[in-house]
Design a protein that fits this description.
Two copies of one chain form a homodimer. In chain A, 27% of the residues lie in helices and 25% in strands. Chain A contains 16 helices and 32 strands. In chain A, the strands form nine sheets. Chain A has a five-stranded parallel beta sheet. In chain A, strand 4 and strand 5 form a beta hairpin. In chain A, helix 1 packs parallel to helix 8. The first copy, chain A, is globular and about 90 Å long. The N and C termini of chain A lie far apart (81 Å). In chain A, 53% of the residues are buried. The interface between A and B is large, with 111 and 111 residues.
Amino acid sequence: MASRLRVLVIGGVACGPKTASRLKRLLPDADVTMIEKGAIVSYGACGLPYYVEGLFPDVNMLTETPVGVSRTPIFFEKAKGFRVLTRTEALRIDSRGKTIRVRDLDTHGENDMPYDKLVIATGGSPLRPPIDGIDLNNVWYVRELQDAASLVESIEKLGLRKAVLIGAGYINMEMAEALVKKGLDVTVVEMFDQIMPQFLDPDMAMLVQKHLQAKGVRLALGEAVTAITGNGKVESIKTDKQAIPADLAIVAVGVRPNDRLARDAGLLCAPKGGIVINSYCQTSDPHIYAGGDCVVNHYVHPITGAPLYVPLGSTANKHGRTIANHIAGLTSPFCGITGTGVCKVFDFTVGRTGMSERLAQELNLDVETAVWSGPDMPHYLPGSKPLIIKMVASKRYRKLLGVQIVGMGDGSKRLDVAASAIFFGATLDQIGAIDLGYAPPYSPPIDPLATTAHVLLNKMNGIAKGIPPLAAKQIMDQQKDVILLDVRTPKEYDEMRLPDDRVVHIPLGALRERIQDLPKDRDILAFCKVSMRGYEAQRILNAAGFERVWFIEGGLVAWPFNVWTKN
Amino acid sequence: MASRLRVLVIGGVACGPKTASRLKRLLPDADVTMIEKGAIVSYGACGLPYYVEGLFPDVNMLTETPVGVSRTPIFFEKAKGFRVLTRTEALRIDSRGKTIRVRDLDTHGENDMPYDKLVIATGGSPLRPPIDGIDLNNVWYVRELQDAASLVESIEKLGLRKAVLIGAGYINMEMAEALVKKGLDVTVVEMFDQIMPQFLDPDMAMLVQKHLQAKGVRLALGEAVTAITGNGKVESIKTDKQAIPADLAIVAVGVRPNDRLARDAGLLCAPKGGIVINSYCQTSDPHIYAGGDCVVNHYVHPITGAPLYVPLGSTANKHGRTIANHIAGLTSPFCGITGTGVCKVFDFTVGRTGMSERLAQELNLDVETAVWSGPDMPHYLPGSKPLIIKMVASKRYRKLLGVQIVGMGDGSKRLDVAASAIFFGATLDQIGAIDLGYAPPYSPPIDPLATTAHVLLNKMNGIAKGIPPLAAKQIMDQQKDVILLDVRTPKEYDEMRLPDDRVVHIPLGALRERIQDLPKDRDILAFCKVSMRGYEAQRILNAAGFERVWFIEGGLVAWPFNVWTKN
């Protein structure tokens, strides 16, 4: 009998088990072993905040298959046909001799394991900020099963009440919701002056901040944590501006790729960390593959293609499939990611795909943007909810570069369509033309994503003169005599208003008749609830010879500053 | 002053108002008039079933803007700047003289209106089957506002209880739900032997049929209605098989395009009806445009491009934008549709985009299909719900041709991604590679659409030997000695089973040990709940030298026949 292909997989969380399972389906004769440093394999780490929130009763459900079978080493051996060694650490790779040195963490015994193909799926680790008190009790990272289990247990047993979340990335957004729903008092501290700084542009972040505050979350933005203090356990979080009383802290300030094994073996890694792979997930040694949170991904885009470190379970699974396919001789390249992410923040869906405006500016790209707001289905249906969409496109190619979506409406669907559109290099015209499913429970006749593309096209064609909310605010702050033209109905005006005495209220239907009330020698910013009518007003005024007219994009729904409301 | 461009728009429901509104934004000086035969303009006809269901209190909300302003002729004149003539019928077009003859339906006066550009947006009309009794009282078409208003009023005032819905297309699916929720007794009669025959393949239709029946809807499939009988009003619906007592009937057996004006003017129309347009919505007379339910669309597809009559409000709006743009000199071609449709049927989302398997076969295309079932988000979240996806792809090009989705899970999102993928000519590998948004409240790490594409690729690569449910049933009916290998856990087996004494139950984890219990000389159909494990079983048996093994695609969740359950 010919010798069997020996495949070693280092890491047993997401990419590792996916690789090993598929490989055994493709090559039943292969000799596949997966080693894992921890005691538990193949768990859904992304589910931890939902366990903390109490949406399911047992954290071990994250290690189970959908029908409740626990994914133990025995499960993998019996059902999937490969060997799993837990509590086993890979110490180093001898790529010339094609062996790895491993240590049994219980017996401390070491030995060498030979391979024909090696898969590095060592994942990522939470960044630990080098501040005093980081090792105090009641400081958690929400990364592994036992973290979440001990957090929940401590909250209950010790009666912890005051949580400070350090870092305002998506993990702490999910944790903020989980802890508020458990009745805790929550403050989020973020060094940047907005939440989700790697993820959202400031205008979109501010809308999520409003929502968080409405849900009772306190935000300390633009504040650096300098120390955690307390007598053995957390008592206070010190920032450069204040001291926040706390009995627990959750640290989520980023993840770094676990690339040490690869670096030590001389494999190519990115300067800021992360193993560099090709489209088949091969490292610079073709017999060694890597995938999951330990690698940097290519950024798939018609215009730019920088490498990107985005650790996500979805990408890890794609890597696993790609690696197994390539080892088995099926070539299905994994071309990269488009930087898509989505996060539930209380009643908001918050998503981004492709480039933010900020990133596009850093890359010196000539972009146009549009902010749109409106309902996710026809207004007459009771389930209709608002969405705010920001779109970034290349001026020269008229191609979509990025989309950000926030709001209570169904943003996840539009995000995935946008991610697909970017993947396929869509122009804005194409986005308006896709034959999306239409029925009232699912969408307005023109989908919000198409409408946003239309606004952006109208801007590029010089028809719509939209001004983004932050730029409008800047004009309001700088120009004393600016006219804020509210073209909503009297009923709407009665219920909610921009709190500014420069507001002139003329309902759109009366604008043509009252046009002489407005001066041509002052800047006019028109707006309504969502700014469809604001745009109409701009066109009507343009036609009457007014040149200094813009509409505030997204209207009051997308206005990130204060609004006066009747109740 | 130069003479203003005169644009006449015939038809005031969807495409008409969209065209006129946008045109006035693009060309404020244009002289735009919209004429409409009915008394009401610009209403959301797609919302009628939801009014009948009682989701909103006043049918006139369908004529209002999202902020409650009624879209009357005065509204259009004041806010949008164009003239609207209701109760005005276009009698004929003189394309040489560039005038239309119109009649005032109140005064019966006639006159000629000149145009530079004409837009035909005359919509569609419900087909009226030529059967006895079709004109009896209490027979409705749900097409116009007054239809739905009088239906709801009659149900309440006359105490109507027994509804027979003639035709099982998407309108009557929505009406079935609406009327059951109003407490009526509902029977759907359909000439074809499945519901939604133009929309779904039989295997997918059967799953929706099961759901309808579970909700108390009676189905009379494969029955032709021969007459409606009653003394002045509906008392019974006669089919070729039975007489069904009824006190109301709703007829929705299709829509035909209102193309008479165009035909009489000598414009090119499709043989089966519908005005033929180019990518700018121009008819065969370049000064005459057409859009909405009166035209046939191009079918955008990398492989086939037949014309298609799919009357939908979403497409009508795209036509309107395209027409206005072209008249104003902005060229943004509308390349066509991909046959996307979505429909809420009680707790199910039912959607299709692209080609069904049946259509692909009619076109003699060499296709492969896969049926997949599974949860729409991780199983540990309480909101997780099942989806069943069927995918049709070209064998030669490995490109996606069509997707059908049914189930309680979020099918609308996957449908829109699939519609985008087909629009961009995606291969199956690309569908697996799109960077879709992942977080537990929105998706499993590998999106259902990607997983279905993977199953299809595995089939094409000869790794997965899936057999679709209907084909499996055929084998079960024809081969007495087939083995039905259930590889689920004992707990699952205890709760639900295939009611067939040829079932052999061996949990997947025990299969390698008990492999000698199975014969190699008989066909084996392996299955589980969703058939991931069924597929694993097939691979394990293949590796052990079994050649006659298939797995039943979609498992018990997608099984359209009876299943035994404990309770």
